Amino acid sequence: MEFLVTVTTVGVMLLYSAPGYALVKAKKIQPTSISAFAMVLMYVCQSCLVIYSFQKVTYTPALFKNMLVFFALAVVIQSLLLGTYYLLFRKRYKNVRYRIATIAGTFGNCAFMGVPLLEHLLPHYPNAVVFSAVYSISMNLLGWTIASAVIANDKKYIKPKNFFFNPSMIALYIALPLFFTHTSIGGNVFGDAVFLLGKMTTPLCMLIMGMRLACVPLKKVVTSRLNYFVLFLKQLVMPVLGLAVVMFLPIETNMKMAFYIICCCPIASVVLNYSEMIGEGQETAANLVLFGTFSSIVTIPVMMTLSRFIV
Question: How does pLDDT run across 48-69, given as a tens digit for each residue?
């Protein structure tokens, strides 16, 4: 049953990409306009999703402690993978494809696909959604600094300004006071607008994926050996590593499963967004994100089925 639920959930999300694909193929949207949609996703919808996720739960000291633990776990596994892939690919870093591969093998769609997956697979555990936001914040902190520096092959991106003043952190500065004071913004025009924009992340993300798919020769996506290698690292090896990290920790099982599900998420669309902002490796990033996203209809159900024999 869980396998069917996972396939259905991922399949429905992938169907959102069809209108984007059709609009570009019909020349109603120009390829040069796609980056504008990505900016709306990254700067507006993702920020609203952070606020929405924190509004879904009620503050307790125990929950906040678990959030800090989850944040630490997210930073540890992503830093470990970034370091490993840097050592693996660094001799080839003159080729931007391997710099993009370093990030794509680490970052997952923990927000855009993670939230609906967690809501469907752990429906009786609402804390899972806020854990997704916590993971996303850790990823974006690394993304605006270390990942940007790797993609550009330039250390200038590793600076306090990029760490403390990026869309996710600004959203966090708004979400945390509301969270700590038990203040709900739902039920009014402003709050409903924020929630609606947050819920738009998955459909908009998939629409952009469809637009990108319409611009990329399918042969390049499915014949690249690098694509298969990065897919293997991100969507098969990382979940196993994530499960190994949390399996023996003294934390609740649902928290372990939330971490595992997030690790199963496909290559993050923000890899393409960072690539576009920096102006390096856009084609490689698009190919990897598309390949990972559409392959996830197989990898996520398989990895979720395997987890039940272990957790």
Answer: 988 988 998 899 999 999 999 9
Q: Is 154 left (phi over 0), alpha (psi -120 to 50) or beta?
A: beta
d(C-alpha 107, C-alpha 49), whole Å? 18
Site of tokens 């120009």 = 30
Would you tell me the crossing angle of helices 201-215 and 282-307 to the nearest 10 degrees?
130
Tally of CB atoms within 10 A around 19 = 15
**Runs of H (alpha helix) within 200-281:** 201-215, 218-223, 225-232, 238-246, 253-264, 270-278
Contacts of 65 (CB under 8 A, 6+ apart): none
Give burial (CB, 10 Å; 0-12/13-18/19+) of 190.
exposed
Tens-place pLDDT, residues 99-135: 999 999 999 988 777 888 888 888 888 888 889 989 9
The two three-digit tokens of residue 30, written as one number: 């120009």
Asked if 2 and 307 touch (Cβ cutoff 8 Å), the reply is no
